[in-house]
Design a protein that fits this description.
- It holds the Pfam family HTH_3.
- This is Type II toxin-antitoxin system Y4mF family antitoxin.
- With about 70 residues, this protein is mainly alpha-helical.
- It has one domain (about 5-70): 434 Repressor (Amino-terminal Domain).
- The chain is built from 4 helices and 2 strands; from the N terminus they run ααααββ.
- It has helices at about 5-20, 25-30, 35-40, 50-60; strands spanning about 65, 70.
- Strands 1-2 form a two-stranded antiparallel ribbon.
Length: about 70
């Protein structure tokens, strides 16, 4: 995944979290991950665990599309 794509993913997570009125702490608790993970995901850290990232996206109601197909 390119740095640009990772950065965009982080921005999408942050925007969805804020739109839903969630803090990083409340989102972390809801997803069963640490707040540090949420921070790093939103910052676009390249080494984020993708399984956890997909779980957070699902909890926020976001779909992931690759080459026009929804995951």
């Amino acid at each position: 995944m390119s740095e640009d794509a990772i950065s965009k993913l982080g921005d999408m997570v942050r925007n969805a979290r804020k739109a839903q009125g969630l803090t990083q702490e409340s989102l972390a608790s809801m997803c069963g991950v640490g707040i540090r993970f949420i921070r790093e995901l939103e910052q676009g850290k390249a080494s984020c665990h993708m399984g956890k990232a997909f779980h957070v996206l699902t909890m926020l109601g976001l779909d992931v599309r690759i080459d026009g197909e929804t995951l």
